[in-house]
Design brief:
Arc Repressor Mutant, subunit A; homodimer; about 25% helix; 7 helices; alpha+beta; Chorismate lyase; DNA-binding; disordered N terminus; seven-stranded antiparallel β-sheet
Chain lengths: ~240, ~240
Amino acid sequence: MDPIPDFQPLYKQVYHVLVRRIAEGQWRPAEALPSEHALAAELRVSQGTVRKALDALAAENLVVRYQGKGTYVAEHTQEHSLFRFFRLARPGAEGEHVIPESTEASCKRRAATAAESTKLHLSRGATVVEIKRVRLIDGVPTVSEKSVVPLQLFPEIDHQDALPNTLYSLYQSVYGVNIVLAKEELSAVLATKADEKDLGIKPGSPLLRIERIAMSINGERAELRTSRCDTRNIVYAIDVS
Amino acid sequence: MDPIPDFQPLYKQVYHVLVRRIAEGQWRPAEALPSEHALAAELRVSQGTVRKALDALAAENLVVRYQGKGTYVAEHTQEHSLFRFFRLARPGAEGEHVIPESTEASCKRRAATAAESTKLHLSRGATVVEIKRVRLIDGVPTVSEKSVVPLQLFPEIDHQDALPNTLYSLYQSVYGVNIVLAKEELSAVLATKADEKDLGIKPGSPLLRIERIAMSINGERAELRTSRCDTRNIVYAIDVS
DNA sequence: AAGTGGTCTAGACCACCAA
DNA sequence: TGGTGGTCTAGACCACTTA
């Protein structure tokens, strides 16, 4: 059995053991964990204690549980987690998110800027890959995205032949980097000439700027993503508390 | 004992009974609920079932639990719930929210517009009260807020002598309206001349517009609040999933 | 010392799924 | 039919607060 700090509640110890095992890839995404009973026997705790740990994992979307079937490692390609980090919706729509299409991405390798190094906790001058794309909503260019990722975490990512609509599924399936949390900062900016080219919007128009730092299950800062959204047809929707 | 639908898990039935009692004011904010043991005895279920219901209430911030003391109805004046709905922070600050000051509010009674009636689920032409204020951050006017509330829910609210910095504590303590959820929609707009007057920002500058519908514990739509934020010094910060 | 919530256990029964 | 998670119970012990 893995070493466990013994000054925490049992269920938290179990929780951390399971997080570590998932992070280490002992069970791959979409793979079933052992049953509560089996885990309880292995870890020498009661089934109820394992359940409390698994419920906590489920609450953080690290696993998905199905009655009668089992507990599975969460996968980024599933419908419900596909839109977990995509919060754009039509005004007034209750919970329904829009379905974005994506144009082809452009990829380029370069040195990180000072700001990027700080935000991603990289050493100065580390190599990053910059991925740019434009998302269409109802066929209209609406969001331009720039993703910056450390090359070290995603070797040769700039030589992937096709980037999927959701990068996070690629991070997870090819590189074993599991995004579980995103810190977002929103502000309002004015469109530039570059925005006019990407989105067909006049310079000086208002854009919603979203800067996101995506954190992996290991706590690594895996991606810095800056989105610029034309909010004439869509809004950023969120329920608080 | 209250009537309970009997086709749900026991702990959910207990949960709904407790929500109803809190909503009806059987226990006032900051007042202690009976102990788990007492509730279990009264409702004829086990202590573990009551615990599960209370844990759910705590997860939704409807109650606060203290080991060794008891379970208390959540209060909007407490530090941690004061900023629950205020998500503005300095860029890069981890979780630290800024402390806003507030200018004096202006209050006026009028008929609801069509859009307001729709969003607040009011009948056409219902009377509302419009409350306007400007919030300062570091002494600088940064956010202008317009709150629209149905007069029916808050009788004579326009004749309150002083409106507190946090309206939600007033709603709760004076009118028994407990705000537990806010639906927010964010977009980018351009500053107008009115914004220049309120915030001292040049017309044509970008502003972050936040439209919030605040829902009470009873599911009533209690407030429509529109904020316009100058995001040159602060951002809207949020962690997703 | 008494009372509260927090943890942990053990076992029962149920609802659901798959072979 | 057997295995899974979901619910419910009863009781033990612990940690913390208050008096």
